[in-house]
From TrEMBL:
<dbReference type="InterPro" id="IPR029016">
    <property type="entry name" value="GAF-like_dom_sf"/>
</dbReference>
<keyword id="KW-0805">Transcription regulation</keyword>
<keyword id="KW-0804">Transcription</keyword>
<dbReference type="GO" id="GO:0045892">
    <property type="term" value="P:negative regulation of DNA-templated transcription"/>
</dbReference>
<dbReference type="InterPro" id="IPR005471">
    <property type="entry name" value="Tscrpt_reg_IclR_N"/>
</dbReference>
<feature type="domain" description="IclR-ED">
    <location>
        <begin position="83"/>
        <end position="267"/>
    </location>
</feature>
<dbReference type="InterPro" id="IPR014757">
    <property type="entry name" value="Tscrpt_reg_IclR_C"/>
</dbReference>
<dbReference type="InterPro" id="IPR036390">
    <property type="entry name" value="WH_DNA-bd_sf"/>
</dbReference>
<keyword id="KW-0238">DNA-binding</keyword>
<protein>
    <submittedName>
        <fullName>Transcriptional regulator KdgR</fullName>
    </submittedName>
</protein>
<dbReference type="GO" id="GO:0003700">
    <property type="term" value="F:DNA-binding transcription factor activity"/>
</dbReference>
<dbReference type="GO" id="GO:0003677">
    <property type="term" value="F:DNA binding"/>
</dbReference>
<feature type="domain" description="HTH iclR-type">
    <location>
        <begin position="23"/>
        <end position="82"/>
    </location>
</feature>
<dbReference type="Pfam" id="PF01614">
    <property type="entry name" value="IclR_C"/>
</dbReference>
<dbReference type="InterPro" id="IPR050707">
    <property type="entry name" value="HTH_MetabolicPath_Reg"/>
</dbReference>
<dbReference type="InterPro" id="IPR036388">
    <property type="entry name" value="WH-like_DNA-bd_sf"/>
</dbReference>
<dbReference type="Pfam" id="PF09339">
    <property type="entry name" value="HTH_IclR"/>
</dbReference>
Amino acid sequence: MTATLIPEPSSTLDPDAAAPAGTQTLMRGLAVVQAVSDGARDLKEICARIGVARSTTHRLASCLVQERYLRSLPGVGYVLGPKLIELGFQAREAFPMATLARPYLDSLAELTGDTIHLAVRDNDDVLYLEKIPGKKGLEMRSRVGHRMPLAATGVGKALLLDTEEPQWKALHRIGAPVSSRAPGGRQTWEAFRERMREYAANGYAFDLEDNEPSIRCVAAPVRDASSGIVAAISVSSTVPYMSLERMREMVAVVQGAAAGISAELGWKVERA
């Protein structure tokens, strides 16, 4: 299975693209903001990136500074301004995680036919925000609003990929994988640590019947503009439908969906 669910990157703003009368100034202003976001720090570099005369670029930049969309810092040049931070937080609040993620979760459900989860960390637990039941007639105990130990679930492990080993150990002590059919039964800390090291190195996590007998899942982290992990998604099914070979094939698919959601939250795919 090679399909991914990463959205195509948006095209670069062209301030002189065919646009209705009266919008060219707006498009040029947005192009200035984008240029600064991409690292342009002075008028010369901004002009080179957007292809607009220096005098026009200066007027646009000055207006953007006045309205707090840009800042002009001595010795640094132009940087993004506090107004964009305010708007970013407002945009994030206006579209809750589950709302932003839902199209990607639906696509993943349609592609796989399996149960799909979206979850966040809540102290030492996983909190499920969304669940799309699979089409294969199986039922899992997870549900929206339900909590489970981080260390005992696939999404929980994915949420922990950036954390340090002492925290892994503490969370393993609180809620180690419990299923007698998990690798090593009630898994030792040493076995859990080795699995987490592999997952952290490769950006995914497996649930190998850790939480429920015969349930396996493939999970991946969701990141925001800071590159921090803010959520995780997973594809879950029973052992007959989720062989180890299929799990390995599913890693890229689940990571692709997670990358799509991450892009909606401001994460840049090229940082991966």
